[in-house]
Amino acid sequence: MAPGRAERSRGHRRRAGFVLPFVVVAAALIAVLGFTAITTSWRAVRAARLAASGVRAQFAADEGLALHLDAWPAESVAALALGTTHTSRLTTQIGDPITVRLTRTHPLVAWVSAEVTLKPSGSVAAVQRQVTRVVALDPPSLPVIGALTAIGTVHVAELTTIAGQDQTDTGDACGPLRDTRAVPPIAAAMVSAPAHAERGEPAFLRLSDTTRVRAAFEAAWPAILARSAVRHAEGNVSGLPQMPGWHALVLNGPQVAVPSPARWRGLLAISGDLVVGGSLDVEGVLVVRGRLDARRASLRVRGAVVTASHGHPDVELGDHTRIQFDRCAVLMALATVALPRSSPFFLWVHPAF
After folding, report:
1. CA-wise closest residue to 302 among 162, 207, 176, 181
2. What are the backbone dihedrals phi and psi of residue 132, each rounded to the nearest 5 degrees, phi first?
3. Residues forming a β-bridge with 262
4. Pair type for strands 320-325 and 186-192
5. Which residues contact residue 181 at a Cβ distance below 8 angstroms, ignoring those fewer than 6 apart?
6. How many C-beta neighbours within 10 Å does residue 217 have?
7. 183 - beta bridge partners?
8. Are 72 and 337 in contact (CB under 8 A)?
9. 3-state per-residue secondary structure call for 193-256
10. Is there a cis peptide before residue 254, judged by omega within 30 degrees of 0?
11. pLDDT of the residue at 267
12. Which has the closest alpha carbon to 316: 143, 219, 190, 144?
């Protein structure tokens, strides 16, 4: 090879070796920029997925609250002791699982929380949303004016005992630290007592406007009938079911007789006449739409009694009748036929996570 050509070849090789580091640096910069762009895009996609999952979880929690309040489980709620929490699980229309927790802090107040946890696809992080609402339990406006409210004449015996002074009990559902309330022992159109009764005629509140009281009773009755378990009964009732907690029961028949001992906790309603022949113990509210006859039996109620006296204006009580007003028992019984309302609280809480 000629000397001049060899020198040109060596110079050309030196120039190629000098450009190579710049090519490597440029390729590295392009790779770094590409990796940065990919990472940024991936983070943006993940953030978008998390945001979308958060909105979806929020909507799911709201839907869970709406579903739970729409299908209000009055029986299971009323069976809860105050302060305890009932947990249930629901599923939205698109399949998101919801955990609903319900806690009663008062006979007619409940806190409802819906919690949703979602894990977006392709993400290691989970999204959690919780919505809490305070609701008031709105029962039918049953006219509980006295320990015994009667739209008619009440006939009491010598040893009939009716007390309107609310007394706390360490064993009741609300505990010893609660509000108390005094009501008239009897609120009726008239009270008739034996002339030779030792304690004379019991103190009572005369219902001057029985039309208004009857209208309130008639307005409350359809709601009680619709929200209670209904048992068709006519003639003698062998017994009442014993269940834990508080429950609402309507005995539907023209005349119901209780010849044997029976107990009930909650709201017990009779659509017709009630004749107590054995013994009947009620903790809560006893509602009689027709006639109440307890002359030859033991009737013990801790709470309140309301009678409409349809078809018969008299309420006849015996020597073994004991009615003690208990505000807590009345409210716990009315909660069995109550529906949730946002009023008067309108309190909605959305904790941030």
Report:
1. 162
2. -125, 135
3. 280
4. unpaired
5. 166, 327
6. 24
7. none
8. no
9. CCCCCCCCCCCEEECCCHHHHHHHHHHHHHHHHHHCEEEECCEECCCCCCCCCCEEEEEECCEE
10. no
11. 95
12. 190
Q: Which two tokens stand for residue 228?
A: 């209670």
Task: Report the pLDDT value the prediction gives residue 224, as an integer from 0 to 100.
Answer: 93
Measure the CA–CA gap between 176 and 333, rounded to whole angstroms: 18
Which helix (H) or strand (E) element contains residue 38?
Answer: helix 3-70
Tell me the pLDDT tens digit for each residue of 138-159: 899 999 999 999 998 899 888 8
Cα(123)–Cα(46) distance, integer angstroms: 7
d(CA 329, CA 265): 9
What region does 10 belong to: left with phi over 0, alpha with psi -120 to 50, or beta?
alpha
Quick one: pLDDT at residue 200? 40
Q: What pLDDT score was predicted for residue 10?
A: 53
Q: What is the pLDDT of residue 312?
A: 78
- Count of Cβ atoms closer than 10 Å to residue 62 Cβ: 19
- pLDDT tens profile 317-346: 989 999 999 999 999 999 999 988 887 777
Joined tokens for residue 287: 């509602």
Tell me which residue of 175, 169, 155, 203 sits closest to 312, measured CA to CA: 155
Q: What is the DSSP letter of 337?
A: G
- Predicted TM-score (pTM) of the model is 0.78
Contacts of 71 (CB under 8 A, 6+ apart): none
Find out whether 127 and 117 touch, Cβ atoms under 8 Å. Answer: yes
pLDDT of residue 143: 93
Longest Cα separation, the chain: 153
Angle at CA of residue 225, ends 224 and 228, nearest 5° = 75
- In the predicted model, residues of the chain with pLDDT beneath 50 are 196-201
Residue 21 CB contacts under 8 Å (≥ 6 apart), including other chains: none
Q: Which three-class secondary structure state does DSSP give residue 323?
A: strand
Positive or negative CA dihedral for 302, 304, 310, 311? Answer: positive
